[in-house]
Amino acid sequence: MGQLIKVEATPLGRVALFSTDRSITGQDGVSVIPGDRQGDDPPHDLAGRLFGADQQIDHVHVLSNTVAVRRKQSWDEEAVGRAAGVIANLFIHYGETEAPETDEFERLRTENYNATLSHIRAHNDDLWVIQVTPDQPIDPFQPGQYTTLALGYWEPRADEAHDVLKPDQDQKMARRSYSVSSSMIDESGALLPPHTPDVEFYIVKVKPGQEEIPALTPRLFMKKEGDRLYMGHKFTGHYTLEGVEPTDNIVFLSTGTGEAPQNAMIAELLRRDHQGRILDVVCVRYKSDLAYTRQHAVLVDRYPKYRYVTITTREPENEGEKVYIQDLISSGRIEEELGAPLDPERTHVFLCGNPAMIGLPKWTEDGLEFPETLGVCQQLHELGFVIDHRKERGNVHYEEYWTDR
Ligand SMILES: Cc1cc2nc3c(=O)[nH]c(=O)nc-3n(C[C@H](O)[C@H](O)[C@H](O)COP(=O)(O)OP(=O)(O)OC[C@H]3O[C@@H](n4cnc5c(N)ncnc54)[C@H](O)[C@@H]3O)c2cc1C
Ligand SMILES: NC(=O)c1ccc[n+]([C@@H]2O[C@H](COP(=O)([O-])OP(=O)(O)OC[C@H]3O[C@@H](n4cnc5c(N)ncnc54)[C@H](OP(=O)(O)O)[C@@H]3O)[C@@H](O)[C@H]2O)c1
Q1: Which of 62, 164, 240, 243 could lock onto 144 through a cystine, CB 3.0 to 4.6 A?
Q2: Residue bearing the CA closest to ligand 2, atom 44
Q3: Structure-model confidence comparison of residues 10 and 6, the more confident one
Q4: Domain boundary among 44, 59, 88
Q5: Whole-model pTM?
Q6: Which domain holds residue 188?
Q7: How many Å lie between the centroid of ligand 1 and the Cα of residue 203?
Q8: Is 82 part of a structural domain of the chain?
Q9: Do 219 and 158 meet the contact criterion of CB atoms below 8 Å apart?
């Protein structure tokens, strides 16, 4: 199997130096540019993988335990993580374990999969809205809930990274949770019914980082319509509209694909003819990371009580003045957009996506202990809101897509 290499990265403008805990070449060093021979010794193999992982990379120099990698543009955090992941995995060899034959893959698929990827709306190469049709009908579930999607570790990956698998894990499935999303309206602009035979999900392809090799999304993004996968039949979670009164104001705050369950709940509130105001705020890196703007525009047009606000953080106009959802709360813009004060007596706030935006506290004997970086939970707590905790239902509800703790 080989061992992961430990890597430390030092980006310096267009060049990043990666020092490794073992030598990859002798003291002579090897320089490689795209188009050079690639692959038959470790430095050329490494250079080929780096070019494949990031098309911005135009020069790789390997000398002993230092890899100098040059990009056409400056390094950012994501590019550094990706390159470090490629270097870390250089000596992980999968050919050493016996790869199952193709008909073995087919047998595993038949045994394990229970649903079909019936439709893919590729908003961009890394962001999909998909419909999954289960072989057997599923019981009704509540808007906001989630289930499991899974694919076998035997499935090919869309990236250059290599999973570090335990023995026999290559015959198991990578399982992840996904909130059920909703396109909210049909082609005529009418609200979709609460239950359809297909289940919709909104999924971003995660890129490999220095320490984490994502398992499921790089495999999912290799699939095409008609391919098979696993979908759990248990739909669960407390991130629902339970406890919301018809006249309450509702504020949905999300990052990235965190808008998935909000969409399902917004459609439900509008179907119920909810009387309070509904504000939906989505924060993404780039405008191109918003896959439901057309549907939201139709809803805004039809339902005066509904408002949809998006913010980006990495477009050229955001340079030097990044605004997060937390800033919209402290500046008063959320209340402006809602058209009402953030009054805990008659407002529910739903937070979904990046855990740093949510900023969930620890519940200790001395009270709530909030994370160092200000999150929305702390801001709302200071305004008198109550955060859901275990079975106690408050008026701040959250779904973290991963944990930072
Ligand atoms: C209850 C619940 C509901 C979820 N619903 C969705 C959903 O509707 N859509 C969706 O895309 N993901 C959703 N996720 C995340 C999802 O379960 C996977 O973690 C994600 O798709 C990446 O899977 P992976 O195996 O490729 O990488 P993983 O090994 O699972 O994740 C690697 C790293 O990628 C980052 N990451 C994970 N998910 C995201 C994300 N959505 N956006 C940005 N960075 C991320 C984190 O840093 C994480 O540590 C949900 C998670 C939970 C717990
Ligand atoms: N967007 C892309 O370019 C893109 C494209 C394809 C795939 N991916 C992959 O998808 C994954 C991440 O996707 P994502 O962009 O959807 O999710 P994300 O990293 O959670 O970012 C979503 C939004 O949350 C913001 N955010 C980050 N920290 C915050 C904090 N402390 N408080 C409030 N907001 C915060 C981000 O701003 P920041 O700008 O500060 O991060 C961004 O605007 C990565 O693996 C990435 O490689 C991303």
Answers
A1: 240
A2: 206
A3: 10
A4: 88
A5: 0.82
A6: 102-231
A7: 8
A8: yes
A9: yes
